Amino acid sequence: xxxxxxxxxxxxVLRRPLMTILAMILLIIGVGYFAKDFHLDASADxxxxxxxxxxxxxxxxxxxxxxxxxxIISYTPGSDLYAPETLADLQKLRSSLLNVERxxxxxxxxxxxxxxxxRMSLSDLSNGIRTLESPDIDTDxxxxxxxxxxxxxxxxxxxxxxxxxLQVNFKQDETYDRLLKERNQLRxxxxxxxxxxxxxxxxxxxxxxxxxxxxxxxxAEAVDIATIRAIxxxxxxxxxxxxxxxPMIVTDMIDxxxxxxxxxxxxxxxxxxxxxxLIFRRPRWIVLPMLCCFSxxxxxxxxxxxxxxxxxxxxxxxxxLLLIITLSLCVHLxxxxxxxxxxxxxxxxxxxxxxxxxxxxxxxxxxALTTIVAFISLLTSDIRPVIDFGWMMAIGxxxxxxxxxxxxxxxxxLYKNPVRFAPRYDVTGKITRxxxxxVENRGPATLLIFVALAMISVVGITRLTVENRFIDYFKSTxxxxxxxxxxxxxxxxxxxxxxxxxxxxDFFTARKEEAAFEDDDTFADDFADAFGxxxxxxxxxxSSYWYSSYQIPTxxxxxxxxxxxxxxxxxxxxxxxxxxxxxxxxxxxxxNLSLAVIHKKLPESIEKALFRPYMSDDGNQVxxxxxxxxxxxxxxxxxxxxxxxxxxxxxxxxxxxxxHLTGMFVLYNNxxxxxxx
Length: 677
Known about the structure:
With 677 residues, the chain is α+β, with helices and mostly antiparallel strands. It has helices at residues 3-14, 17-32, 53-65, 84-98, 139-148, 174-192, 197-234, 246-279, 283-307, 318-343, 349-376, 384-413, 427-441, 443-462, 479-490, 505-520, 524-538, 540-543, 552-564, 574-584, 592-601, 604-610, 637-650, 664-676; strands spanning 39-40, 70-77, 103-107, 164-170, 239-244, 310-311, 495-502, 568-572, 621-628, 659-662. It has three domains: 3-37 and 249-424, Multidrug efflux transporter AcrB transmembrane fold, CATH 1.20.1640.10; 69-112 and 152-244; 490-676, no CATH class. It is built from 24 helices and ten strands. Strands 3-4-2-5 form a four-stranded antiparallel sheet. A four-stranded antiparallel sheet has the order 8-9-7-10.
């Protein structure tokens, strides 16, 4: 440290310790006050790539096909699943769940339409939908239908008929959707061109409003999930129940983060105090370092609340890291002070503090800067929580450096007499002396060992993979793990993946040419009238690409291919819908006329369940909704996505521009690939 800078430092900190301590206390209290606004976040948005085009497409598809939040409750009764007492308990459970304020509906085996128990015809549908609660239902036939139906098997009822699922759907929150949509639209617009001053102001306003409302909604969801768990507990005597679904994972993750912040921080604190007591054995060498550590953590909590940064699962260990880094800076000063007892015999306390700061300033600054650079490298990520983690650690380490050279020496100056410590067991000294002796006397052997280690490291780097099963993030005793494992194993998988297939581009070209021919042909009116009558009679099947008898084989081929992959669980699509429609058609093959008739006569509830989630309104786009078995040991996400895309074009014969892969499975894979790079 240059003499001029050191003189300024000495006049401010070392000669006015009480003023320095007071200034630091006021700063920490002033910033720490905003710790009340500190916020935890475990939503899906917190682990998504910024500016990810797949995310933009994912939201478009969700808007088109719908995506209400829901929970899954797995229900494994002690007796037969279709026994009267089991169904009665399911009725009570469903009724209790429907009484939860934000629950919109509950779907279970009691609500599932049954068309093969016994077989219904299209005309029978006009008399109403038959379910397990219908008075004339044949339970044995219903059992067979749930077990073999392409719609219900491995979705509502497990293959062993011991477990069923209840889907608890939450009400659509229009305020949340509106704020999210407006915020995302402004963000996307900013990527294409600079926003106006008014738009920038509106983006800041709507982002702040969204964050406030999102926190309020998260708190409401936590209350709802606690209520649902209490309801489930009332039925645990009759069956074994597990809760699953994204809202539950988000709520539990926030609890885990809160617990980690407390347990990691407390655990590290106890460990550090114990080590300081064991090694230094003097109150000042324990109180002053821990005061700096505590101040650094309070400052960062307040700073994060002040600027609105959220702590996520990525950054939940920042408290323990900050404690360790702050203490390491203070320990360097303590050890140097102790060394000065031998180097400056008879020196007074103030002189030793001055020399301690003078000799350790540059090494400490260099140590802090190299650590800051390491965390700043996280800014190259595309994942917002990773970027925020880099910034918060860089800022936290900078403040720790200030504390170490302001609060620590100022506190030390309040003591009048020098105090040293004598370590009982100089273990580290023995280790370093042994290493030094080895290097001095066995230089070639040392080089050979490290060359071998470097070669092993290079080989190891080439074998790194990015795969990480989401289920492995949790202990096997947690409800998230047990619920995901059961749903994976018995109810068709957990992680959603959507395959979107557009119409062949040539189809639209042919339609345009037909329209142009009709405009130019002098006899077009007669043909147009005849064609118009046929198209009106055929309805959607006469005007769309996929809702046509000619495309049913292709849809079934795609469906069977996806269903046959070892990594996939339940697959639902228009192929499933066509199977059920063929049953309603007396098992006769479907032609365009029968497709049109069935489509027009289907009840609204059936159309909502079997058409809207899997086909666009114009019939020119279809969606294959499948769930991936996350606990599958052989799962390789990126390879699976590439395989599906390749096989649909090369084996099925679709054109590359027709095939789109989306869903949380794709977004999570993008995050993993980004972290790997």
